[in-house]
Amino acid sequence: MYQLQLLLNIPEIFTSQSKIDFYSSISSMFKNLDLSSMPEFPSSDHGRKGCSHRAMFRAFVVMKAER
Predict the structure, then answer these.
(1) Closest by CA position to 53, among listed 44, 63, 41
(2) By the 8 A CB rule, do 18 and 26 touch?
(3) What is the superkingdom listed in this entry's lineage (predicted)?
(4) What per-residue confidence (pLDDT) applies to 15?
(5) Mind listing the pLDDT tens digit for each residue in 42-59?
(6) Could you tell me if residue 62 is inside a domain?
(7) Helix/strand/coil (H/E/C) assignment for every residue in 27-62
(8) How many independent structural domains does the chain possess?
(9) pTM for this structure?
(10) In-domain check, residue 15
(11) pLDDT value, residue 22
(12) If DSSP codes are grouped into helix, strand and coil, which group holds residue 6?
């Protein structure tokens, strides 16, 4: 069972090289991108904390780049 978990945690086995290159380039871009001017969470006095604006921005960039 442990060996199967180790195999499933290696994305290179199940992913094509072009996708690995794409996601590694996106990952390096996000490491160098400064999102400190964007608030992490929306300011609200009532209700839930909400979703992270930075995470939503990153997801939007990846979604548009995948097309």
Answers:
(1) 41
(2) no
(3) Bacteria
(4) 67
(5) 787 787 878 889 899 989
(6) yes
(7) HHHHHHCCCCCCCCCCCCCCCCCCCCHHHHHHHHHH
(8) 1
(9) 0.63
(10) no
(11) 81
(12) helix
